[in-house]
Inverse folding.
């Protein structure tokens, strides 16, 4: 076993016990199974192992949650920020939880699993961090080591509370200047009753933790061993995120700027390399070690070549078409999505049905009831003619199936810039195939003696995220320099520092859009920064929380037969959510928390006072 596995596994057992059952949370943990602060911090070496365990809890197989495939940060980011937001369509989220999760119908249930999962995750991180913070000052080791470990733990605790506020607190402008009650503020490792604290009190604690963490990092000579651990840049990056949430624009601008020093905004080639390998833009990542996560990895579920993507037939995520149409036609990021305009980039021989863009709204070629699947309908003329003989309303058009298949092949051969060899599985040399399963007698001949059969390929299917065999592992980015650049741009705009806002925006769009020049001003500049943030960070866990703090409605337009002006959502999921819906985009405090924690007065929560 590799050494990093050994040191990470030591921090996992208590965490796994904390996550037993989807209707319970970390407070169900029996006290005798908690690793005490004295045990954790007998030495700085032991304390670092405990910190490694916190990092491991962000990317592991949570076997006891009664909901398979839950793996921590990437799962929650995808299904709670991306899928609940405007720009990302997740077939897996829809299939797992149903349309009510998207339309807001299910969210008023305190025992709803989507209210409980993030809560347990956040407080698990907080509880583990508290154990380290309590004991580190007395640990055996050098001051430099103590400072570094303490800074890591404080950063983790701040991060955990940031996520609590992001999901369970109202947006700042609805928070009565921070006086609304939202969650318990636990600063010691304990399951004792703890009353609700206000949003302002929790924010003040986060600021204090991060101020101390930054001081301790700066006072230490130690360096993090792996990118899945925090360091000074991550503390500053978390600070920037929290400051954006609080609309503390000066702090957000400074921290975002400071956090990204020493990193590089990724090139276009890197952007089109599949996001499965580390690079100089990635500041904080998950481990890509297959022994840590196996088949519950982000890539197995949400990469275009993931095993579950093909086997379950729900797609690997698709872009909202209304959003896509707002992008500059020359933006290289548009290449990452299967949209009607891709018909024009394929050789004519790869479009044997001679379909045009409007075919993406043909009800005989697209299955609206199954994730708006474009790999549907006839894939040859004979089948189309046979179907037409049975249904005189069918015009005989065929071939979105073929175009969906061929665009994947086109992307792999003409667009993809990553290391394709890294994805070759010695037991399955077709692992890298997009949304299709090669076979000796499939539907479409793709090379001599080689056929392929398509699985569900949604309208707008993404090609941004790839993964490595055999378990779909990758470096999922928790934080990127590009995110910090866009945070700096947004904060600078709100501060009236227009020159910096434009410079930061140009730093990214100047790479992604050939010939780009920033000419926007006033609110148009703000909107352009937001648009860039939405496409640059698409699928990385920011959509819902961004729309929440921007106080914007979410509108999901349904796909309509023969209507090219319509969207690409299934009817059941199409809706408009105003900023006041879903308790103001706020998850409810889980029943399991206040049933156990008798110090909580739920009547203090803002949605119970309305």
């Amino acid at each position: 076993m590799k050494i990093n596995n050994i040191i990470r596994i030591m921090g996992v057992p208590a965490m796994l016990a904390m996550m037993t059952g989807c209707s319970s949370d970390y407070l169900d943990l029996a006290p005798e199974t908690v690793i005490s602060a004295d045990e954790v911090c007998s030495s700085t070496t032991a304390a670092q192992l405990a910190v490694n365990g916190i990092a491991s809890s962000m990317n592991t197989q949570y076997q006891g949650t009664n909901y398979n495939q839950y793996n921590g940060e990437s799962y929650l980011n995808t299904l709670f920020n991306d899928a609940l937001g405007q720009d990302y369509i997740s077939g897996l989220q829809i299939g797992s939880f149903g349309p009510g999760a998207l339309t807001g119908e299910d969210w008023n249930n305190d025992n709803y699993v989507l209210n409980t999962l993030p809560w347990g995750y956040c407080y698990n991180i907080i509880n583990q961090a508290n154990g380290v913070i309590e004991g580190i000052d007395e640990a055996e080791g050098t001051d430099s080591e103590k400072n570094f470990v303490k800074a890591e733990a404080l950063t983790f605790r701040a991060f955990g509370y940031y996520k609590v506020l992001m999901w369970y607190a109202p947006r700042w402008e609805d928070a009565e200047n921070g006086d609304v009650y939202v969650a318990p503020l636990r600063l010691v490792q304990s399951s004792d009753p703890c009353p609700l604290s206000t949003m302002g009190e929790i924010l003040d604690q986060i600021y204090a933790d991060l101020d101390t963490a930054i001081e301790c990092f700066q006072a230490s000579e130690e360096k993090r061993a792996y990118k899945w651990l925090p360091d000074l840049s991550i503390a500053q990056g978390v600070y920037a995120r929290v400051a954006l949430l609080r609309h503390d624009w000066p702090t957000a601008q400074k921290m975002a700027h400071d956090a990204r020093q020493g990193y590089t905004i990724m090139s276009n080639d890197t952007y089109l390399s599949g996001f499965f390998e580390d690079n100089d833009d990635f500041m904080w990542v998950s481990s890509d070690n297959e022994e840590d996560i196996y088949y519950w990895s982000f890539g197995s579920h949400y990469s275009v070549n993931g095993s579950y993507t093909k086997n379950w037939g729900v797609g690997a995520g698709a872009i909202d078409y209304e959003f896509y149409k707002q992008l500059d036609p020359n933006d290289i990021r548009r290449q990452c999505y299967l949209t009607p305009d891709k018909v024009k980039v394929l050789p004519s021989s790869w479009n044997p049905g001679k379909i045009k863009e409007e075919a993406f709204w043909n009800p005989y070629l697209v299955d609206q009831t199954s994730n708006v699947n474009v790999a549907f309908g006839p894939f040859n003329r004979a089948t189309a003619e046979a179907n037409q003989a049975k249904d005189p309303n069918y015009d005989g058009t065929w071939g979105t199936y073929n175009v969906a298949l061929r665009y994947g092949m086109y992307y792999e051969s003409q667009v993809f810039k990553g290391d394709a060899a890294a994805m070759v599985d010695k037991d399955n040399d077709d692992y890298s195939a997009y949304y299709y399963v090669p076979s000796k007698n499939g539907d479409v001949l793709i090379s001599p003696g080689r056929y392929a059969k398509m699985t569900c390929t949604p309208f707008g299917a993404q090609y941004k995220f790839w993964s490595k065999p055999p378990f779909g592992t990758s470096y999922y980015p928790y934080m990127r320099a590009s995110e910090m650049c866009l945070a700096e741009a947004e904060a600078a705009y709100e501060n009236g520092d227009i020159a910096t806002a434009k410079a930061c925006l140009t730093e990214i769009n100047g790479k992604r859009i050939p010939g780009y020049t920033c000419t926007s001003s006033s609110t148009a500049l703000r909107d352009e920064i937001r648009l860039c943030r939405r496409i640059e960070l698409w699928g990385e866990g920011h959509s819902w929380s961004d729309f929440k703090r921007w106080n914007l409605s979410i509108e999901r337009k349904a796909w309509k037969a023969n209507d090219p002006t319509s969207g690409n959502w299934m009817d059941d999921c199409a809706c408009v959510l105003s900023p006041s819906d879903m308790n103001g985009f706020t998850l409810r405090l889980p029943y399991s928390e206040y049933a156990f924690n008798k110090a909580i007065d739920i009547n203090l929560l803002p949605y119970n006072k309305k």
User: Anything to note?
Assistant: Confidence is low (pLDDT under 50) at residues 1-34.
